[in-house]
Design brief:
Number of strands: 8
Strand content: under 5%
Length: 655
């Protein structure tokens, strides 16, 4: 460690902050006006660097050094046009859908865009040319520092200033700021809201594309840049405050400089312990986000968002199952029980059915806090992973039998949910979701780096079930019983006094508080219940595979859970089960039959979102309610009574 090394690392942090700010600024603008949490924003960043690579190669040959500098803004503009097309063709159709379904649509776009990039540019990393005129370096305190990074340090404040002038000195900027505060009122004043949304989305996409294009001389273009970038961008936007551009810049500086200091510190001996600060760079941004959100729930420079008057499907009361429904569920369970006999010639089917059951239990646990409790979690994989690692470590380190590990491992996940939930329930909306994401990433980082205990990036192997379960059919039946018991128990909890109190807090915090319900405590308890069941799913997963890796706690696993719940429908108890089975089966089937399985899976999800905006199970329930309403109308006409009417918003029947 030296003073000159610290200065160089701080300058590196400034250069990284500029690129990160460009992505976060676009994301913040889009969310501020459209209220869409755009999961595909990292894809715009990735497309930007790939387009810059191609344009720099083509224009460089024709225009020389000027071709490179022309390629960067052209790539950004092209990404802006792509963003406008996506907004007009897809997102404009779902603005009135629930916000989480918009998130599902943008996740599907991530899959489609990734495979489109794979098809156009191939799987290999592409290293772009060095910037003409800025290929060298300058000496700072006896150390060499790239000239191009100095250029990037200047770009960030310049773009911030230009966007600030656009938002404060033009009519367009006035409309954008007004829409950020109350977009429905802007529409009521006669502003063409649709084209305003398109312009803002295009501007946000262009900023992300510019951020990607500017990275061309610094790092190779890869297919993993989309998800890596969107995680960091979300953190910056939330830490700075949703919708605040100055906040995004301050947050980008803060996080980038803390990472730079961690790299400069390296490995430090404190009280006889060696602490690797450089490893903290994997999780330091999420640590910062967790601290900021606990201390200041709206971010450093943010404030509470005005509620949107656009609502999709209203939350309707959950109703107890009818006798017909119970009989149908029992018949379906009996059919599942005989599946191994029906597929005796295909052992893989039994393995796939175990995966479907585990996914259904995981999705049901996430739905428990998303639907009835009204808390959106982006980090539910933390409890799945804690249950899986808990089971593996109990068997390997403590020598417990598999049967006892299946009982204790979910308690490990429940303890994690107990700790994380205490902080999370103090927030709401996007901020709560981002805090759960931060905790999940912190848990992932600990698991990924603790080689001596968790096996690090290699994970743990040799986690097999007991001898009497070595036959996959026996393990399938055990999984079926435990998953059925878990789903049944969650349903029982929802129809208990606790479940009614939890749903009352979701529907109206003030009214629930007025009648004596401690809403935060109820939500905290709901986190623990959901974590316990997710831990059971994780333990079953670990023993079914015989091993476990940090991927079980990753952001991708949490996103998979969200997709399952939203695909099935958040407003029905059957929704998460239907969504989990549909998504897992589609993922397995599509991935085995085409190289571009992401694009096909994304296209299927987009079609389902457009056709079933309330999810598959939710939309089928709505159709059934309408059919039943028409049958009741016919009966009422025959009896000379006023017919029943089924409302489109809730599916309720009323005279």
């Amino acid at each position: 460690m030296s003073f000159s090394g610290l200065i160089v690392q701080l300058l590196n942090g400034l250069a990284s902050a500029s690129s990160l700010f460009l992505v976060a600024a676009g994301l913040s603008l889009i969310f501020g006006v459209t209220r869409i949490v755009n999961f595909a924003h990292g894809s715009f960043f990735m497309v930007g660097i790939y387009l810059a690579y191609t344009l720099a190669d083509r224009l460089g040959g024709a225009l020389g050094s000027g071709g490179f500098w022309l390629a960067l803004p052209l790539a950004a503009i092209a990404v802006g046009v792509l963003g406008a097309l996506i907004e007009v063709v897809l997102l404009r159709r779902i603005y009135k859908a629930p916000e989480l379904f918009q998130l599902l649509a943008t996740f599907a776009l991530v899959l489609v865009i990734k495979d489109a990039v794979l098809w156009l540019w191939g799987p290999d990393e592409l290293l772009g040319p060095r910037a003409p005129g800025l290929k060298g370096s300058v000496e700072i305190l006896g150390r060499q520092f790239p000239s191009y990074d100095l250029f990037l340090i200047v770009v960030g404040p310049v773009v911030l200033g230009l966007v600030w002038l656009l938002l404060t000195r033009t009519r367009f900027g006035t409309l954008v700021r007004a829409a950020t505060q109350d977009r429905e009122m802007v529409s009521a004043l006669g502003v063409n809201q649709a084209w305003l949304f398109t312009a803002v989305f295009a501007l946000g996409a262009m900023l992300a594309g510019l951020g990607g294009a500017l990275q061309l001389p610094r790092e190779p273009a890869t297919l993993e840049m989309d998800l890596n970038t969107i995680g960091a961008a979300f953190v910056v936007v939330v830490v700075g405050g949703m919708g605040s551009l100055p906040g995004a810049y301050v947050a980008a500086l803060l996080i980038a400089e803390i990472k730079a200091i961690c790299i400069w510190l390296g490995v430090v001996d404190l009280f006889g312990l060696s602490i690797s600060f450089s490893k903290l760079t994997l999780v330091v941004d999420f640590l910062v986000m967790a601290v900021v959100l606990v201390w200041r729930p709206w971010g450093l420079m943010g404030r509470a968002q005005a509620p949107s008057r656009y609502v999709g499907m209203q939350e309707e009361p959950l109703r107890r199952a009818s006798r017909t429904y119970v009989m149908a569920a029992a018949a379906f369970a009996a059919l599942l029980a005989v599946v191994p006999f029906l597929t005796a010639g295909s052992p893989y089917t039994t393995v796939l059915m175990i995966d479907l059951l585990v996914a259904a239990l995981f999705a049901a646990s996430l739905h428990f806090i998303m639907g009835p409790a009204g808390m959106h979690s982006f980090g539910h994989a933390a409890y799945f992973g804690l249950g899986a690692y808990g089971a593996a470590l109990l068997v390997r380190a403590l020598g417990l039998p598999m049967e006892l590990a299946l009982i204790v491992a979910p308690l490990v996940a429940a303890i994690g949910a107990f700790v994380y939930g205490w902080f999370a329930v103090r927030l709401s909306g996007v901020y709560l979701a981002m805090l759960t994401l931060a905790f999940a990433q912190i848990t992932w980082a600990v698991t990924y780096q603790w080689d001596s205990f968790t096996g690090g990036s290699n994970g743990l192997t040799g986690v097999w079930p007991s001898a009497w379960l070595s036959d996959k059919r026996n393990y399938y039946w055990l999984t079926l019983v435990l998953v059925g018991a878990g789903v049944w128990w969650l349903r029982r909890v929802l129809f208990s006094p606790f479940g009614y109190a939890m749903r009352a807090g979701r529907d109206s915090v003030l009214r629930a508080d007025a009648i004596g319900i401690d809403v935060k405590r109820m939500q905290w308890a709901a986190f623990v219940v959901a974590g316990l069941v997710a831990g059971l799913a994780g333990a079953l997963f670990a023993f079914s595979k015989g091993s476990i890796s940090p991927e079980s706690l990753s952001v991708g696993k949490s996103v998979d859970g969200l997709v399952m719940v939203l695909l099935g429908g958040i407003q029905t108890l059957a929704g998460p089960v239907v969504g989990a089975v549909t998504f897992t089966w589609l993922h397995d089937t599509v991935a085995r039959n085409t190289d571009y399985w992401r694009a096909m899976l994304g296209a299927i999800i987009l079609i389902l979102v457009l056709l079933f905006p309330q999810g598959i199970a939710g939309s089928l329930k709505l159709l059934a309610d309408r059919w039943r309403g028409r049958a009741d109308d016919a009966a009422a006409d025959a009896a000379g009574q006023q017919p029943l009417k089924v409302t489109a918003a809730t599916g309720e029947a009323a005279r």
